[in-house]
Amino acid sequence: MAVVAPKSSPHNTCRRLTRLPARWFATVVGVTRFSVRVLGFPNSSRSSGFDLASFWVIRREQSGATRRTRMAARLQQQLLPGDESVLLRLSHSNLKTFSSDVRLSLQTTVESVKEKLWRKCGTSVDSMCLELYDDTGSKVSNLDDNSRPLGFYSPLDGYRLHIIDLDPSSVTSGGWLEDTSLVEKYQISEEAYDKHDGTFKKFKEKIASQNRSAFEPKIADNYMEDLCKNVKVGNRCEVEPGAKRGVVKFVGKAESLAPGFWIGVQYDEPLGKHDGMVKGTRYFECPPLHGAMVRPDKVKVGDYPERDYFAVALSCGAPANKG
Prior knowledge:
Blueprint: H1 10-18, H2 22-32, H3 43-79, E1 85-92, E2 100-105, H4 110-121, E3 128-133, E4 139-142, E5 160-165, H5 190-195, H6 200-210, E6 236-239, E7 244-253, E8 261-267, E9 277-278, E10 281-282, E11 291-294, E12 299-301, H7 309-315
Parallel strand pairs: 1-5
Antiparallel strand pairs: 1-2, 3-4, 3-5, 6-7, 6-12, 7-8, 8-11, 9-10
Helix pairs in contact: 1-3, 2-3
């Protein structure tokens, strides 16, 4: 391969060469060994152009070496055991409900571990003492040397790092971070609250003035009270629908149900839903599946004796079982 420069403009030739791809420069420089005689130029007059060409070749080789160096460093990071990390569980001497997991590098010093834990639990580095426990709860060691790396104490995944707060005036002492009953609550009197604007009470009054039905109960507390005047506990009754007969066991309000008055009935047959207890509140006693709570308009009291279904069957022509 021979490259011949135009006789008219040797400087332009060098500039064109510097714009060629790097692999072309490598070919030219490798064949000529940086000799300008192949191009027909004197060494003294055109050496600068080939200095630039050699610069790009060297730069390309350096870039390749840099990439190889980075790959080797990355591979070394993955293979070296000194850069391993460990997953530890955390517990605290003052915070009984504190529980967390943290991943730490084995090369991290104990002091750096304490600084990281300080942001998690609030115990200062100077007042912090660390103990390492294995997965069975047995104590492994005390991390008492702040200058040593964490890997010196041979922790494994699943081990527990216990934090002891030595400061009696620490924010973690006394249960202030866990027991909300110890926190003083802000209280305001009704008079002072009424003087404030933009409160929920004022908003509720405004809405109620615009739409009074929005805050009025759907059912009044004395709903169907007049229908219960003649109903007494112990009266025989019949309940619609179905003409189910039974005994009145309760008359009054049922707070666990809707507002208004209710009547509790013990059916003669297991046609009910409960034994007199409704939503955790007992209103009367009766056998299971014999009790019901109904509205007064569904109940008629009077002479409603218990039905004899055997006699009814005979009157309807059903054959009697003679045994």
